[in-house]
Amino acid sequence: MTEKIGFVGVGRMGANMARRLKDVGYHVAALYDVRKEAVRSLGKELGAEACTTLARVSELSDVVITVVTDDKAMLKIFADKKDNLLKYGKGRVFINCATVSPSIHQKVEKLARKAKAQTLEGCMASSITQAREGTLYLMCGGERRLFDRLQPLLTKLAKEIRYIGKTGQAAQLKALVNMVMNINTAALAEGLGLADALKLDLKTVMEVFSQTGANSRVLVTDGEDMMNRDHACFFSAAHAAKDSGIALSLGRASKLTLPLASATCAQYRKMIKLGLGELDKSGIAELTFKGRGRKKPRA
Cβ of 63: how many Cβ atoms within 10 Å? Predict the structure, then answer.
C-alpha cells in the first residue's frame, strides 16, 4: 500500500471513504473541499494535509478520488484556469465517484489524457454506512487495464465491483439505478400516504407490502422513516432531483418519453422549492401524507 491517496470532496461519502482507506493502511496524504473547516477537521483526524489548492492535492498524491456535487463542480476541478487537478496530473490516476452526466466523465477523460493522466469512473450505489465500512457497490467505467490495476484499492472500498464498459457507460447505468430508486421511493410515499388517509395501520401495510408485489428495497430503507417523519439525510432530495434529471436527459437523447421519471423528478424539485431539498429522499412523503409539509420534519 505504497500509493499516496488524495480526496477531493470530503462530504458524507468522501470523508468516510478516506477514513476507511486510512483504517486499512493506505496513506491518505491530501484532502480538498470548498468547505474549509470540514477539510481542516478531517485532515487533523487522518494526518493528511488540508490543501488550499487542487493542484496541491495532485502534487502530493498518486491516486486522487473525487466525490463532488454535480457536473459544474466536476468540470471546475479538472478544467478551471486558475487551479485544477491536472496541473500536476502527469502519471496520476483519478477515480471519479460522483453521479454526474456521462458526457462529463468523457470530457474529463480527454482532459486527463492530454495531461498524461488516467481516469476511472467509480460510480457508487451505496450510502454513508457502506462508505465507512468498505462495502460500497461500485460500477466502473474506463480502460479495462486500469480497472484491473486498481483492484487492490477498489476492493478495500467495495464488496461488489462491476466493470461496465468504456467511460460514460458506468455513469449511464448509475443514472438508471437512481432513476428507478427515486421512482420506487415516490411510489412508496404515495402508497403509505394513501394508506394513512384511509386510516389503515401503517405497520400492517408495510408488512403486507413486504410479502407482495409492492415490495421493494426502499420499503426497507425508507418505509419507517416516512411513517415516523425521520428524514435524517443519507441521500438528499436535491441529489435525487439532480440524478433523475440526468436520466431524463439520457431519455431525451434517446428519443424516449419517461413519464414516471418526469413525475418523480418534479416531486423532488418541488421539495427543493419548499426548502426541503436537504432532507433525505424519504422526505418526499412530506408531499403525500395529508397534513404534512406545514411543520418542519426531523432532519
Answer: 20
